Amino acid sequence: MGLETLRGALPPYAKDLKLNLGSVTSSSSLSEQQLWGTVLACAAATRSQRTLRELAEEAQEHLSDEAYEAALGAASIMGMNNVFYRAKHLLNGAYDDLRASLRMQIIGKPGVEKVDFELWSLAVSSINGCGACMEAHEAVVREAGLSREQVFDALRVAAVVAGAAQAVEIDAAPGAEATLS
């Protein structure tokens, strides 16, 4: 079970994703916690139960309980923030004078190093398509000392996890043969 099960379940047309999933999880400039927190947060952000089930199992082997919870927290809070701030941004400043009045305490006290949580939030924001959140979180992680390569590696993880999730969901669609049990 886990990563290899997900890789094995990818259909033939997703061979590139299968190979990329192996490479982004085995060769990275990210620390183990940064990498597997990104994988877990991104798996949750895809909304694919299959992808989350397999990658969560693998992430548990690499993350502390606190980091595991924080990665899921990043996916959850960004699920809210990405909708709100993307909409606010797309409305061209019409609501910039109003407070969000949304609780987001986890961002201030995530239970792990703030830079790791911010990196996970950046990766999730890329999946959810919120440019305003991506810019804000990228600025925080760069200011905290992460390199361009580390940011790029997190974005690569997000892209590959999102693509793999899409492929397994396509393959499990009605009329398609499901390859994951």
Number of strands: 0
Main sheet characteristics: none
| CATH level-1 class | Mainly Alpha
SSE string, helix = H, strand = E? HHHHHHHHH
What is the CATH superfamily classification? AhpD-like
Tell me roughly what share of residues is in helical segments: over 70%
Distance between the termini: 10 Å
Organism: Conexibacter stalactiti
Keywords: Antioxidant, Disulfide bond, Oxidoreductase, Peroxidase, Redox-active center
Enzyme class: oxidoreductase
Protein name: Alkyl hydroperoxide reductase AhpD
Task: Give an overview in words.
It comes from Conexibacter stalactiti. Disulfide bonds join 130-133. Homotrimer. It is an enzyme of class 1 (oxidoreductase). The active site is at residues 130, 133. The protein has helices spanning 3-9, 15-26, 32-45, 49-60, 65-90, 105-108, 114-128, 131-143, 148-171. It has one domain (3-171): AhpD-like, CATH 1.20.1290. Helix 3 (32-45) runs antiparallel to helix 4 (49-60) and helix 7 packs antiparallel against helix 8 (131-143). Helices cover 70% and strands 0% of the residues. The protein starts with a helix and ends in a 10-residue tail after the last helix. The radius of gyration is 16 Å and the shape is globular. The model has no long low-confidence stretch (mean pLDDT 94). By secondary structure, the protein is an all-alpha fold. It is built from 9 helices and no strands.
